Records
---
Amino acid sequence: MSLRNTNIDKLQQENFDVLVIGGGINGASCAAALAGKGAKVAVIDRADFASETSQASSNLVWGGIKYLEGLEFSLVRKLCLSRNKLCRSFPSSVREIRFFTAHNRNTRHPRFFLYLGTWLYWLIGNGFTKKPSIFSKKFVEKKHTVINTQNCSGAIEYSDAYLMDNDSRFVFNFISSAMRQGAICANYVEAEGSSQEENGWSTVVKDLQGGRSFRIRSKLIVNACGPHVDFYNQNSGQKTKHQHIFSKGVHIIVDQITPAQKVLTFFANDGRMFFVVPMGDKSCIGTTDTKVAEPKTHVTQEDRDFILQNINALLCLEKPLTHNDIISERCGVRPLVVEKREADQAADWLKLSRKHIIEVGDNFISIFGGKLTDCLNVGNEVVRFAEQCGVNLSHSARRWYGESSKQCRDTFFYQAQVLKIPGKHAKRWWRFYDIDAFELLANIRRDCHLQELLIPEIGYYRCEAEFMRKREIVTKLSDFLRRRTNLAMIMNEETLRNHLGIKEVTKLLFPKTFEQQWQEYFSVTANDNLRASK
């Protein structure tokens, strides 16, 4: 029996301290925190973990320098400290990176004023990163020839951080951490509504793969449904002071624009910050910021045109980027928090705060907003509220986040070297699997055929497919291609379809349903492309 089926049986049969509904960054961090502190935790998501907003970010872990303009010093301070903590706690996965910001003389702030702002930002963040720098136009022309300097007065450089791998993998690692601490997690399980009983909450759910409906019983509910928090609160009779409005963000992925491992930062023609973020040998460009009425959205031709027009104006490329250069796209909504009485008056969502709000009532916690950078704060706050709601945390002093120790990591790298695993592949294994990566080495010692490299582009081995099938609840092919890895981001549909290694991995992940999974994935992808082209 698969891990997912075993977990669904446990969800139906056992009683839990906490049911976390939603497996995005908020739900995943809460699950890891609560399970790590000793609570008996269940986690469900109606799709895959990290399959909505949490798979569509810029992959940045940053303190929010742009929020200084709105004088949100407290929020910037909080996010900077959270960024610092993530960098210290996940040194393999969250790395400092320089942001090289070309200054257009037509922007609303002078270059030196922005330079002073980066120093303020550095000071607010306790001087954790490298110090800011300021450069002349001649320097930009000499060192960054890809930048269009026609209206450039110079540049500023400062530091923030980014995720070495994709955001959804980072989120799943919190789910994995929760499972190591005993949490029972299942994807493609939809919560239809929660109601109070004598001993707590009863939540009606449906297994969207198997079709059966059942109840999950828990003392406490955590509504971590991201942009769907309001909808689930309505279904469960919960009244809150806050609600969400939505802003759509789109990125496009193209072949690498510059080998410099820096984030190129500009101001788009709508005044927003606009990035070219390194993604291996690809570049991620964006983002847009468009108000939308519903969380379900998709990339439009207008979105692509906006990004392409801006990037072609800001860079000096041998050939302007066109729609044909787009390898893949990322699209999601930012759930922005407003008080209900202010929702209709929030005309300028660009000025809305990106802070999170947590509301608690009747042992029912609702999380509004939230960012990747803020995940540790969200987890810690929910732990505190859970304790106040009477959840017994048997390991309340235990640290629940962070990768395993440097000594453990160095031991793994040594053992990987003995088995002749290339260093860059061993580093990715550690980022993906942490202490469980030792299991990959043990399996290779048991069967040398598991050391076969199946997907050279990311250094993916046969032993990983075996591990993911057993341990990572890969239920659909898109879970693997889009979220457990970033293959669907760095390869177009044709490359994916014709890749023999990916086909072999699919057979290993789904030995009984390979053809069904393969056809389903590419038919859905084709339909999405057809819709997006209209």
---
Amino acid sequence: MKMCMVTESFSGYHGESRHVYRLAIELGKRGHEVTVLAPKGVSYWPGVRVKSFPALESIGLVKSKIIPSYYFEVNKYEIVHSHSVGLPALFARHAKNFFVTVHGPLWYSGNTRYGLPGWIYNQLVTDSTLRAANKKGCIFCISPQDHGLCLGMGLQNSHLLPVYVEIEAIREADGESFRKKYGIHGLMVLEVARFLEFKGQLRFLRDCAEKIQEKLDVAFVFAGTKSDEKYLKALRREIVARNLKNVFLLTDLSDQDLWAAYKACDVFILPSEFEGRPHVILEAFAARKPAVVTDVGGIRESVGNLCRIVPFWQPQKFAEEIIKLLEDTKLRKRMGEKAYRFVSKFSWSKVAEFVEEKYLGALKRKEVG
């Protein structure tokens, strides 16, 4: 089949880009012709055909005035799969076979609208996009929470995606080379996330890092996409103001360095305020690492008791859980092994098989109809 993936962002390392890339690769292996429609053509992702449409970024959409440039492009494909529920999806929903993946938490959708502007946007954009996918194809949800929201909105043609992780690549990565490259000799705590305020890096530096370093000699490594330069500057100022040592802000790591970072760390953290079903936790599991995470989005439903789960408004407890793990090598190993057993059964090939099945089901329904 000839199909396209529509995405607002396809550069740097973060969940949606990685998801789109791996799904496109796996569907290609199954004999499909896949094109990614993205704001910019990029070389970061090898082996995937990318067509650039500036209108897929918010500023580009404004400049395009009424009809964005990719509006007519999607008519060329048998399957159109949007990885946005926002404006890019709105201008692709006229496709004959239209699918949507909900990547982030639908905190403004369904019964969780906030204020009149959010309600209006939800009615005009998000709800109408989801209902179009429910009718013409289906809705894929990353988190159980969003799946429940969709079902609650009467969108019965919504499905929870299987879990996926880069198990082999992470297992074979060299953690010692990462430590050597950055001069890290003692304990190491890692977060992998975009550099955005709701990901919690600033709050962690302000409320947790100092408490942990008062007790232990530990390095903090934050790896992610440089999404907000002002926010990165705020992080650097916080590091200086609190006289924190051995804090690394690493932007746009290669895959090899990222996998090595997982292997190198002693504890993985995710102090986010909002999440869907973050696959970075599973990647840490693939490296046999214990995790301390916030109780947001679909995290609890996804990983259950495999992590130390703390409400994001309790930074003192968050810091305490990290300290407990850093001080107890045996506990770290037990948690890491249990997490690895949980994640070792997941693969991208199963995700592609599931998605392909839904594509074919939609086409069959149209033929019967």
---
Amino acid sequence: MNVKAQKYIPLTEATYYILLSLVKPMHGYGIMQMVEAMTNGEVKLGPGTLYGNTTKLLKENLIVEVASTDRKKCYELT
């Protein structure tokens, strides 16, 4: 494994599910719903956890914010 990738291992549970849910561009509330559905309610992300993680992922260029037709911030994988 290369050195650059090693800093992401291990992923936190929240980060793992956020990245997994972004198979298509999605806004924050959609991510929270997707994670809850994928885990059959076992994992519920709160807004603080979600936006703390998305801020970190944006800074690391693992996700980007994409244009949206409404006021919601949408994210997608890079």
---
Amino acid sequence: MITLLLVFLLAVAAAADLPQSNVGKRLTTRYDDYLSDPSAYRTQVEKEAYLFPEGRLYPYMFPTLAYTNLAARDPLEREHAREQVGKLVDLALGTTRHMVGVPLDEVDDYRGHGTWLGSSLLMLGCWRYLGGDDRYEEIHRALADSLGTALKAEKYGALDSYPGSAWPVDTMVVALGLALRDHQTGIPKHRTMMTKHFDWVDQHATDPRTKLPVFLVDAEHGFHRDLPRGCDLSLRIAFLAQVAPDRAQSMYDEYAARFWISRSILGSGFAEWEGGMDGTGDIDSGIVFKGLGMAATGMGLATTRAVGDMNRWAILHVELQGFRTMMPALLPIAKNDLVFNKLPISNEYATGFLFGDAVLFWAVTWEDWGLEKLD
């Protein structure tokens, strides 16, 4: 009864568009503290997030998206958000330049680095969206042009995330970055190619049985070779809703029907695999506990808000508020996990680790940026 009452009150608060949750406020304060010394934050990222393939990128990208959310929600936050995003962009561009191997303002071939270049494009788009000046314009133009050219060359299919490997959700990041570029220039240069890419996903990278996008595709031949997964879908739908809300809603309806788990004792949330199949978590899913995916459920805070499912959003907020009480039960799982036993897990973090908090900061603050919609 108490849980149902909390769900109801949170749903009412969400409908009234009240300020962000306590977790969101704590994370905002935490990241403001981190960014008071960007060099120290970079050192912390290098030390604690090295295990993740994007460990030197996403701890900069997701807080950038979070600050953009805060500014979209409250224009009075715009100046502060821009200041913080500038610091994060500087940190990210340095590591991206190292990863790609050429000066970013000279990039004319994306070289299979869709993840790094796409994320940098998205961050630069946030900088301009927040009213940032043109200090990064040469890099911004080069990334938009090279990734747009690559998308055409791939006949609007998935770009390589890394050379030879393609996770289609990474091309969703590119698409959102191109949408922000169009928003900044006022020229709908990439509108058609985004629509064609989304059509390609429907035709070539969607599981015919579930009608949901697959997790991984064959980068060379374009056919899918993996099942839909919760960690991908929660992220993808929340990004897609910024530019194509009707597509996002349709995808979400299938996702919620097949992946949502509702339990009164072990917790509710999104499964990593359809129907809540249990399994060992990996670097993408996070810990899988009784079928619930840590990443799928955490990012589900953004997903549910993005499509207006405030009932499930409220349920997830209740789960989030009580997550710390579950930490003692999850720590042994993390320590026995072949991946997560190498992470510095700590109660200092809302999710137990730095990388997770960066993603949660974005998820718990999700806001519609008011971009031009494709549908």
